[in-house]
Predict the structure.
Amino acid sequence: MSFVSLDDVGPHIALLRLNRPDRLNALSFTAVRELHASLDLLADRIDTRVVVLTGAGRGFCAGYDLKAHAQGENGAWEPGLGAVQGQYRMQQGYGGLVLKLRRLPQPVIAAVNGPATGGGFGLALACDLRIAAAEARFNCAFVKLGLGGAELGTAFFLPKLVGSAMAAELMYTGRMVDAEEALRIGLVSRVVAADALLDCALDLAREIVAGSSPFGLRVTKEALELAQSGLSLEAVVQIENRNQVLASQTADSRAAALAWMSGKPASFRDE
């Protein structure tokens, strides 16, 4: 049984689903490796322009599968390594998921259908956009497990979304945030009924696909990623200048200008 599925669900849109509903899609070693493989495939799929990430059943992702670890189901991440090296390599495997999410050329929409806790919270934060079902819940579970309060990029992403004081509160306490509060503090952009969540995410994906040239979309994500990484205003403006010059030379840009002048919607062909 596969713990991660990747499917085309419309023109230029892919649905990436965590599929361990009996464990609230907690991340076992196998699930982490399958998610890495899916992200590698997406990185090379130029025809895919938007990705929707969600979970099967009633959970988005409950983070690291502590039960599997306690029962010895996971085995060793890399057999033959010492305890410290093995733990470090495993940590790199988990943490590497958010790096790959950010490096994808496609914007990623998290459709958070239920609990997004611990590492699952980190996955949601690493997405470009987050839409939540009313049943969604979020928390930085790490500090409650005797660990540091940040993992999978939480200390990088969370302050940018909710501000440093609120991020500190959530990371120091590990308290749960419901969907209503998540919307109020800027953690998510929309809250919808559970049965409308996937449709809402796919509608947003279709809006992005229809309204953006493929090259323009890719360089926009690139600019946002570089800007969030701490570049100066001057460096960001230089990146934006480069992107505008490059994009303006594409056939899609010329077609969009003609469509705008004629009052018709543009048809983008990634040319």
Q: What stands out?
A: The domain at 4-208 is CATH 3.90.226.10 (2-enoyl-CoA Hydratase; Chain A, domain 1). The chain is about 50% helix and 15% strand. The two ends are 39 Å apart (CA to CA).
